């Protein structure tokens, strides 16, 4: 058996099942806990174990990149808060239904009418946000508000066994999930033309995207929301999720962004994408501990330009 074939066999028959078994056991355990206990336990484990992981160095490098004058004390505060938030996201995952249930009072909705205007429209609408606070709540809340007639675009895990478990938890309120990538583009267009809302998280790197500023540094960014909005004439509605404390949140919808119309479609896409990045940046600056700083958001050249060594895949910096 060729090496690549052997690796693929081991992945499918050994690695993936072991990963899925461990994930299932952890999910089952936190599902049995009351929501507040599960969230608190996840937060404790996150802030205790997270900083000890090798990938933790990536968050430190990102913070030093975008905040050149940041102090070590601030780095510790932000990264500790980030790890706590990530731990809470995991602990809350099996309890998404309870969190978004209207009678729970755990999600304060502010100006939801901006999103609700999409209902019955001919163009649909794009709701943009980022990996802030518990971003999983966004797709579930969207499905609940629109009676299951919503679509969310997501980056799926490679492990199909884990993917199946995640899909079952995300589907508690209905709605449709589309995987990021070229294969999902036609489905997104169809969903918008059917008059439905499509949710997109726009804060991750896209290698074949467009370069626009993010924290003042050029970053490859997905132009899809801007391209679709300008092509179909549908509104782009920002939605910000904030963690208020424990497993309680505030979801704020904002008025639709103005769609540029200069006559130069490429320039208009860049302008609208830059506006979206600017909003995300504002939200992250306001509550940096709630963002996913572990993502390799900027090109390696950006680190070199600021005097860093190369940022390795495990997050550490080279000499």
Summary tags:
319 residues, alpha/beta, two-stranded antiparallel sheet, 12 helices, 9 strands, 48% helix, globular, disordered C terminus
Q: What characteristic shape results from the CA principal axes?
A: globular
Give the strand content.
15-25%
| Radius of gyration over all CA atoms, rounded | 20 Å
Secondary-structure-derived class: alpha/beta
What do the pLDDT scores average to? 87
Strand order of the largest sheet: 1-9-8-2-5-3-4
Major beta sheet, specifics? 7 strands, mixed
Number of strands: 9
Q: Give me the number of helical elements.
A: 12
Unreliable spans are 312-319
Walkthrough of the structure:
The protein is of the alpha/beta class and 319 residues long. It has twelve helices and nine strands. The protein has a seven-stranded mixed β-sheet with strand order 1-9-8-2-5-3-4, sandwiched between helices. A two-stranded antiparallel ribbon has the order 6-7. The model is unreliable at 312-319 (pLDDT under 50).
Q: Can you summarize this structure?
A:
This protein is α/β, with parallel strands linked by helices. The chain has helices at about 5-30, 35-50, 55-65, 70-90, 95-100, 115, 135-145, 160-170, 185-195, 225-230, 265-285, 300-305; strands spanning about 105-110, 125-130, 150-155, 175-180, 195-200, 205-215, 215-220, 235-245, 250-255. Helix 10 packs across helix 11.
């Amino acid at each position: 058996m060729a090496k690549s074939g052997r690796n693929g066999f081991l992945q499918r028959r050994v690695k993936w099942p072991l990963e899925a078994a461990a994930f299932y056991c952890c999910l089952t355990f936190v599902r049995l806990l009351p929501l507040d206990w599960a969230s608190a336990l996840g937060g404790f484990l996150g802030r205790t174990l997270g900083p000890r992981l090798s990938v933790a160095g990536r968050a430190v490098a990102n913070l030093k990149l975008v905040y050149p004058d940041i102090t070590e004390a601030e780095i510790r505060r932000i990264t500790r808060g980030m790890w706590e938030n990530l731990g809470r996201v995991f602990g809350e995952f099996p309890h998404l239904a309870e969190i978004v249930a209207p009678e729970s009072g755990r999600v304060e909705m502010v100006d939801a009418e901006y999103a609700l205007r999409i209902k019955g429209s001919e163009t649909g609408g794009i709701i943009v946000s980022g990996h802030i606070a518990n971003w999983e709540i966004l797709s579930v809340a969207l499905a609940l508000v629109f009676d299951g007639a919503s679509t969310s675009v997501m980056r799926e895990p490679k492990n199909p066994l884990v993917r199946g478990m995640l899909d079952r938890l995300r589907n508690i309120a209905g709605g449709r999930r589309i995987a990021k990538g070229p294969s999902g583009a036609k489905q997104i267009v169809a969903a918008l033309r059917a008059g439905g809302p499509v949710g997109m998280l726009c804060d991750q790197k896209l290698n074949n995207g467009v370069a626009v500023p993010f924290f003042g540094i050029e970053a490859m960014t997905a132009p899809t929301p801007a391209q679709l909005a300008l092509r179909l004439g549908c509104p782009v509605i920002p939605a910000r999720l904030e963690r208020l404390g424990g497993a309680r949140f505030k979801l704020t919808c904002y008025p639709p962004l103005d769609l540029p119309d200069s006559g130069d479609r490429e320039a208009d896409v860049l302008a609208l994408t830059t506006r979206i990045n600017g909003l995300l940046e504002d939200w992250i600056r306001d509550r940096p501990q709630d963002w996913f700083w572990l993502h390799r958001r900027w090109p390696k050249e950006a680190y070199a330009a600021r005097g860093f060594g190369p940022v390795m895949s495990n997050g550490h910096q080279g000499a």
